[in-house]
Amino acid sequence: MDTLVFLFETILATVWDVLPIISIIFGFQFFVIRKPIPNLGRVIRGFIFVLLGLAFFLVGLEMALFPLGKTMATQLTATDFIARWSEGSVIGNTMDWWDYRWVYAFAFAIGFATTIAEPSLLAVALKANEVSGGAIKTNGLRIAVALGVAVGIALGTYRIVTGTPLHWYIIAGYIIVIIQTFFAPKLIIALAYDSGGVTTSTVTVPLVAALGLGLASTVPGRSPVLDGFGLIAFASLFPIISVMGYAQLAEWRAKRQQFLGDKTCISK
Amino acid sequence: MPIIVVIGFFQLFILQQPIPNALDLLIGTLFVVLGLTLFVYGLNQGLFPIGTTLAHAFATKGSVIWLLIFAFALGFGTTVAEPALIAVAAEAASVAAKSGVIAADQAAQDSYAYGLRMTVAFSVGFAITIGVLRILKGWPVQYIIIGGYACVVVMTMFAPDTIIGIAYDSGGVTTSTITVPLVTALGIGLASSIKGRNPMTDGFGLIAFASLTPMIFVMAYGMII
Asked: Helix (H, G, I), strand (E, B), or coil: what is residue A190?
């Protein structure tokens, strides 16, 4: 019964979120374009399905995964847990960055898993597959982006543990992105930039934020307000690098295949 | 569902604790799968077609001004009500109050958070407008993005420390699950209905702008206040 009430509330909240979008679309459709929408019934049905789908998705996450994920994030960053894994080197509060290795592993795994489940990434991947005529595989893109997020978040937790300034990482990341832009295939560039923005929404943000804040409040000398932020920035920068890398790798392999093919032709 | 595997593994092997509420977990997972299926079905029926038909309608109507106004309204309207943004803005206001940038009372915090929300929403509207203009003119995406990065780096040196983390994060939280498919469909629809534009190189990129400009605008906001 509680679940039903909760489901209903979530549907209402989602409708409320979508209301501005719907009013903008219909406002422009009626006052500026002044043409009826083709297949209006189908579009409305589609919107209803999207709303219901999102609501179910969110309720499911809220029931199953968020509470557990959040407790785990706090448990893994708790001082006594960290102390259990450190190799007797705990003198007072001086803990080695290596003592936090399970936190990095968790950050990597949770970053990967939540990104694979992200609905907006799924939407972009579907569209990319359609536009590229099937050259970009929906799941290939999703995995490339998820790997990027995983590495990004793992590095982000390392940054919180060591307390190094955020902007150096981000600036270094930008430099890599710029260098890659010159070498990556032209077709992928815009998509790669986009994949940075889509990774972080409904699923990733709450879990990652819990991890960051938990970590920043348990590591000695970190302030949650200053160091807790920044994980999302990592999660939106690294997918750009990994998607361009994925495209470069695919191109390189295709070239190599061609090159090898040419060679066998000649030798024959 | 990989999330379950991850959480299950860490729960059992690393933390060495049993999984609580196994039934809730099962029902929740079913809901997630059902939800994603409905979502994808709805995308193809509703959100993708309407984005594409709107783009075609604007392209055939040929009124650039209205298209740009629409782009701005879409960016601004979808961001200003975004729950993730409201949460981040409130968080940022309490940080600012603690570090003494603004007065510690509730009214000052509320007005700071409101200002931040408006700043981000405005910057997303601006980003979508620029992005649409780029598709119309066929400018290459990388120069604008690199220019934006340069802007971010320069601003980072001058912006107050407390705002930098928030500014970087606000780039990521702006793009919600409904906005992304709609904006993507709009961009690709525009690029495929204008002659000489390739939907692959020109159609994408709107989301990238929408996650870049908030960083610049929020740092500017932090410098002004």
From this structure: helix
pLDDT tens across A205-225, in order?
A: 777 777 777 777 777 777 666
pTM: 0.80
CB B165 to CB A235 under 8 A?
no
**B7 → closest Cβ in A38, A65, A177:** A65
- Alpha-carbon separation of residue A212 from A155, A224, B73 (angstroms): 12, 8, 33
| CB nearest to A46's CB, from B47, B57, B95 | B47
Ranges of chain B with pLDDT below 70: 1-22, 62, 99-101, 104, 174-175
Residue A92, pLDDT score: 43
Gap between the Cα atoms of A157 and A103, Å rounded:
7
| Distance separating alpha carbons of residues A99 and A109, to the nearest angstrom | 18
Which A residues 238-267 touch B at CB under 8 Å?
Answer: none
In the block, residue with structure tokens 């206040």: B225
Which of A45 and A83 is assigned the larger pLDDT?
A45
Write out the two tokens for A79: 């001082």
Interface test with A, best of B54, B56, B94, B200 (most A CBs within 10 A): B200
Chains A, B: CB pairs < 8 Å: 340
